[in-house]
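Standup notes, protein team

Yesterday: finished cleaning the Gluconacetobacter johannae set.
Today: Bifunctional DNA primase/polymerase structure.
Blockers: none.

Input for Bifunctional DNA primase/polymerase:
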Amino acid sequence: MSAASQLAVLPPHIIQAVNLGKHGAAVFPCQENKQPACPHGFKDAATKADAIMTLWRRYPGPLVGVATGAASGIDVLDLDLHKEGADDWHAEHCARLPATRTHRTRSGGLHMLFRHREGMRNSASRIAPGIDVRADGGYIIWWPAAGLDVVSKAPAAPWPAWLAEMAVPPPPPKADLAKIERGIEDADRYVRGAVRGAVQAVASAGQGRRNDTLNAETYALARFIPEGHLTAGQIAEAMAAAALQAGLTVPEIEKTITSALRARGGAA
């Protein structure tokens, strides 16, 4: 059977999924409750017609999920207008919002689509209560494939600067090398060099390597604790500053540093 013949007998939502894939959207099947039907969620998303049809054949789902962010080239402003505060925010700012592709959601809210902006990630209520962002690391349901209204068919617009400023988290603080140096000024030159190297390694670690790098460098520095060259507190302070610069969250940092120090026998 030809590809065209296969498409002709598919349910409408899968046909829409294939069409979305042709335009660069990474799609995957979702269940009625909006949860992914496939085992790895948006990480299973595909853009090629054969791969999309295989996904739905293996993991049938009535809803079409679209991976947001760089995967599909779009970010989404998710307005849950039924939540307290969201409707007020929208009323205050709607005149400033650009014309952009907009969908009605099942709950009566809006999905406003914008071109993906580098550095844009998921956030919940950062802008205002009930105003979320779906970007790198997230997904949305493509509600038009479920029969809901397309409020605006305008092309996805760039993020307006004022809104991007509200949506993007502030840059992580820079590792205060001067403070770290003061904290270890009594240590010998070799130890100070080791701390500087560890701080640089953690601060410059990319996504996917940050926690492992923090763990390894903290573990390595802990060898200086039994000899009295460094304290666990000095190591934790230096590593935490570097990890914040790398973009890790405080809970992640505390957990990793504590684990590394305990594994080396240092005080946690």
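Follow-up from PR in the comments: The chain has two domains: 3-167, 177-264.
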